[in-house]
Design a protein that fits this description.
The complex is a heterodimer of chains A (496) and B (480). Chain A is an alpha/beta fold. Helix content of chain A is 34%, strand content 12%. Chain A has 15 helices and eleven strands. The longest helix of chain A is centred in the C-terminal third of the chain and has 21 residues, at 375-395. Chain B has 480 residues and is of the alpha+beta class. The longest helix of chain B has 20 residues, at 220-239. Classes of the chains: A alpha/beta (496), B alpha+beta (480). The A-B interface holds A 75-77, 83, 85, 90, 93, 95-97, 99, 194-199, 201-203, 229-233, 313-314, 316-317, 319-323, 325-327, 341-342, 346, 366, 369-371, 374, 378 and B 42, 45-54, 81, 83, 85, 87, 90-93, 134-135, 140, 142, 269, 271-273, 276-279.
């Protein structure tokens, strides 16, 4: 096979070709390894923080994934391989163990190709908070790829990896998938072990696939799910993950929430190109047999506020371990008027090691948990979270799925929002409610803004989000597959 | 105007290291002096990405403690994170329990229990340098072997009124925990650690005074001395018309001095919040049944049983049941088939007074050279008057020093009671002759004057004579 033929294969196709003996595993790996080295560095897309030193995969191809190369978000601990969570405080840190999700994929026959750039500790929606520089969007290198799994999304979109592993806390898989024109799935909370994921917000973090198509997402998810003795919050998936093959949506009831629709006020200005692509996709769904129903998620407009209390609160505690004592950066105490001794070492290390966004969230979270403020902030946010989960439960009595635009905007220009944290946080408006409810949601590319779908176009991808009840991943992907086939999005258009 | 009498108000916080196989939140074995940092893993080192998983055995032990202390067991309790920075705390937070602990309420003896909760121990810090404290040290080194050891924290209500009562109650708690088998309860090794909250108030007042917290006293003696010293310090402050400052204090047993431990850290806001990495502990009926089935006989129940089964005095029964391993020793001894039989009360007396008195502080009878069967045999011989009480004590001296069989010792040393009444009568006559003054006074009705005569007989017979028989013969011969 030629290089262009090889990179045209989806992960599912590549695995099948290797197992059928039609494709040499070394050749498959070699093509991606060369491409990753050539296009993934800081002088190009900057989507990788590490690319394997090995120019050939070690060992024989393993079933069922046939050695298909895998890009892994930096925050997954990978034994003896840099795992830095996009932060200077962990620069060069090589853990002594591998995260469960990664080792499960390796055991199923995936070969680790690279680690992907990300927002620092997964805090960001543009990948600009990475200590290792921003990732560039393959569709337009002057624009962001979204975040925090921006490196994973860009690598898959540019054809530098067949697929990638990401994590989603408030939209960190779905939003970059949308902005890069690929598929991203956030599974049900607990479906995939968090063991070995450098934590941002423990009650929300969830690993998931970023892939070129829905079938690849299903294949990866199949080899990630399962209860893990090392993660007390993990759960056994109640059924096997099946390969989606749906082409129709007959009888499927799609819910459009007043509060999460293109017209909703809270979204803070949805772009016309995004609105048009979303509406066109709804029309397409109806043509496939789906019915559209307007539903209410009364508390959804408060999701972002609750999220930006809960996630910083958890992160302020999760990031306390980065204190310079045992691993990562340790700065010498002192400076002109700095504290001496232990406190000086702590403050200097954390001052030098964390970036501005991480510091902002640590301070927000520390404040929210402080005596006297706990009930007003953390306690109230937890109550809002409960209400949002109840809203979804009620809604799912009337509809099978809830659909939204994944993001209010297409990929924006580098630096456009870095001085406006609130505008940056608004990127998560459509994705955070599902995170708080712990339910699965997928983003699929539904077209290009202005690509014959309506006004406001700039030719950049738009994401369509489909959310279902807990553990409904098979059904969600079945519906996504049907839409995907009808949309016919060309995911290879951005290949480097 | 008479001086105000002050009343001590003391509450205790006890940390008990649970003797589980593995640590509280990971699979590492507990450490017993292994080389530093050899009992560690990503979880107890707080490495990035590692997650805790609660130890079921620790929960089981926690429930047993709750049952033993008569607590209300929470059907659902949750772990919280207690956030603060310190090098012995690798995650920057301790996983503990906060407003929903495993057990609430309860009572042991005269002291009410406030709560019992589970948490993880910190690592061990050693400060290198002259001071031995973190401030001013050249370096601090951390051994994470201890980090993550399961702890049960037991908090009492402020029901204790004296330093002695505090130490006594802690002894009762320790023997209770030892009976449960949930901990080594060794204070010197730190598996049982006690902090005391101490305040004074005018006697009769219902209002609590300002309290101080006295930290980590690692023996019963230090607890008693430490609390006494702190009570004295507070009384001096109050009598001078000044105010006690609420602070954490350190008692130095060498100097007897009390110093402020970390006033700077008093203002800690621990920012407790529910640990998102762990599910709530939901107590199932099965877990409760298992804990109930595992409950051994507790000291209070044992005292009642000893009293009823063996006809012991209430005081003896309580002493045996409440003190270290006296009860176990007693039960082992009383079961021994010795001939002549040892009456249980006499056996108890010999154990409590004679044997315990001959052992060093902290040495349990079961660890001594005196086998329970040997003590039983000895008491049997004395009770049957085969040997005198005095001879019995000599035999016990020998048993404590060398161990062995009392019957053999009696024979070898010729300590058998004098069975020949005539021989003893002769010695008594000689004793009276040698102590004529005393004999006159006894005749005149001064019974206490008999001492020198008895002493003479005992010297002559090397203690083999039975005291009662000697007194009978003296009275007979003097016609008194």
């Amino acid at each position: 096979m030629s290089e262009s033929q090889i990179i045209a294969l989806s992960a599912t196709e590549a695995a099948a070709a290797v197992i059928a003996g039609e494709l040499d595993e070394r050749e498959l790996y070699g093509v991606y390894h060369r491409r990753a080295r050539e296009h993934g560095g800081s002088d190009a897309l900057n989507c990788f923080t590490w690319v394997s030193e090995l120019s050939e995969p070690g060992g024989a191809p393993q079933r069922p994934l046939g050695g298909v190369p895998l890009a892994v978000k930096d925050l997954f601990c990978t034994k003896d391989v840099p795992s830095q969570s996009g932060s200077k405080i962990l620069e060069g840190y090589r853990p002594p163990y591998t995260a469960t999700a990664v080792s499960k994929l390796q055991q199923a026959g995936a070969t680790m190709l690279a680690k992907t750039n990300q927002d620092e500790f997964a805090m960001g929606s543009s990948n600009e908070s990475s200590a290792f520089g921003p990732v560039r969007n393959p569709w337009d290198r002057g624009r962001v790829p979204g975040g925090s799994s921006g490196g994973s999304a860009a690598a898959v979109a540019a054809g530098l990896a067949p697929w990638a592993l990401g994590t989603d806390t408030g939209g960190s898989i779905r939003q970059p998938a949308a902005l890069c024109g690929i598929v991203g799935l956030k599974p049900t909370y607990g479906a995939v072990s968090r063991y070995g994921m450098i934590a941002f917000a423990s009650s929300l973090d969830q690993a998931g696939p970023l892939t070129r198509n829905v079938a690849d997402a299903a294949l990866m998810l199949r080899h990630m799910v399962g209860q893990d003795e090392a993660d007390a919050t993990s759960l056994a998936f109640p059924e096997p993950i099946s390969v989606p093959d749906g082409v129709r949506l007959d009888g499927v009831r799609l819910g459009v929430a007043t509060q999460l629709s293109a017209e909703s006020e809270g979204a803070g200005g949805i772009e016309p190109g995004v609105a048009a692509a979303f509406e066109a996709t709804l029309k397409l769904a109806q043509e496939l047999g789906a019915s559209i129903k307007t539903i209410e998620l009364p508390h959804a407009p408060h999701a972002l506020a609750a999220y930006y209390v809960l996630a910083p609160a958890e992160c302020s505690s999760n990031l306390a371990r980065f204190d310079g004592v045992r691993y990562g950066l340790r700065a010498e105490p002192g400076g002109e008027d700095g504290e001496r001794g232990l406190l000086g070492m702590y403050t200097r290390t954390r001052h030098d090691g964390f970036g501005a966004e991480v510091k902002r969230r640590i301070m927000l979270g520390t404040y929210a948990l402080s005596a006297g403020y706990y009930d007003a902030y953390y306690g109230r946010a937890q109550r809002v979270r409960t209400k949002i989960a109840e809203d979804f439960k009620t809604a799912f009595q009337d509809v099978d799925f809830i659909v939204t635009p994944t993001s209010a905007t297409v990929a924006f220009e580098l630096g456009a929002l870095t001085d406006d944290p609130w505008a940056m946080y608004m990127n998560d408006y459509f994705t955070v409610p599902m995170s708080l409810a712990g339910i699965p949601a997928i983003s699929i590319p539904c077209g290009l803004a202005g690509d014959g779908l309506g006004p406001g176009g700039n030719g950049l991808p738009v994401g369509f989000q489909i959310a279902g009840p807990a553990f409904s991943e098979n059904r969600v992907m079945q519906a996504a597959h049907a839409l995907e086939a009808a949309i016919g999005f060309d995911s290879a258009a951005a290949f480097a | 105007m008479s001086e105000v009498e002050y009343e001590a108000v003391i509450g205790l916080e006890i940390h008990v290291q649970l003797s589980t196989q593995t640590k509280m939140f990971c699979g590492c074995g507990l450490s017993f002096g292994e080389p530093p940092n050899t009992r560690t893993c990503p979880v107890c080192l707080g490495l990035p990405g590692a997650l805790p998983v609660a130890n079921e055995m620790a929960v089981h032990y926690g429930l047993m403690i709750g049952l033993a202390l008569g607590c209300e067991l929470a059907p659902r309790s949750i772990f919280h994170r207690k956030n603060y920075f310190y090098p012995d705390l690798p995650k920057g937070y301790q996983i503990s329990q906060y407003d929903e602990p495993l057990c609430k309420g309860g009572r042991l003896g005269e002291v009410r229990i406030h709560r019992v909760h589970l948490e993880e121990d910190a690592a061990k810090l050693t400060h290198v340098g002259a001071s031995g404290r973190i401030h001013g040290s050249d370096a601090s080194i951390v051994d994470f072997n201890r980090g993550g050891t399961p702890l049960a924290e037991i908090v009492t209500e402020p029901d204790i009124r004296s330093a002695e009562a505090a130490a006594d109650w802690l002894r009762l708690l320790r023997v209770t925990l030892r009976r449960l088998g949930v901990s080594d309860v060794n204070m010197e090794e730190g598996s049982l650690r006690c902090d005391a909250n101490i305040s004074l108030r005018p006697a009769g007042s219902e209002q609590l005074g300002v309290k101080t917290e006295l930290k980590n006293m690692n023996s019963f003696r230090f607890i008693e001395r430490g609390i006494k010293a702190e009570l004295a310090r507070q009384e001096k402050i109050l009598r001078a018309g000044e105010r006690v400052i609420q602070e954490t204090l350190h008692f130095d047993p060498n100097s007897g001095r009390i110093t402020s431990l970390r006033s700077k850290e008093q203002a800690h806001d621990y920012r407790y919040f529910p640990e998102p990495d762990l599910l709530p502990i939901a107590i199932s009926q099965q877990m409760l049944d298992r804990a109930r089935e595992a409950m051994p006989e507790l000291p209070a129940a044992m005292a009642t049983r000893l009293e009823q089964e063996h006809g012991l005095s209430a005081e003896s029964a309580e002493l045996l049941a409440f003190k270290d391993e006296l009860g176990d020793y007693f039960e082992a001894a009383v079961r021994e088939p010795v001939d002549p039989q040892a009456p249980p009360q006499a056996l108890a007396n010999w154990l409590i007074t004679d044997l315990t008195g001959r052992l060093g502080e902290g040495q349990a009878p079961l660890q001594s050279r005196v086998e329970p069967g040997a003590l039983a045999a000895l008491v049997g011989l004395v009770a049957a008057k085969r040997i005198s009480v005095g001879a019995g004590r000599s035999v016990l001296d020998k048993l404590v020093a060398e161990g062995g069989d009392p019957v053999a010792i009696v024979e070898a040393e010729g300590l058998g009671a004098m069975s020949d009444g005539d021989e003893l009568a002769g010695i008594v006559a000689a004793a009276i002759a040698a102590n004529a003054d005393a004999a006159e006074r006894v005749k005149a009705g001064n019974a206490k004057a008999v001492g020198p005569i008895v002493g003479y007989v005992m010297r002559e017979t090397k203690g083999r004579a039975d005291g009662g028989e000697v007194n009978r013969l003296i009275a007979q011969q003097l016609g008194a």
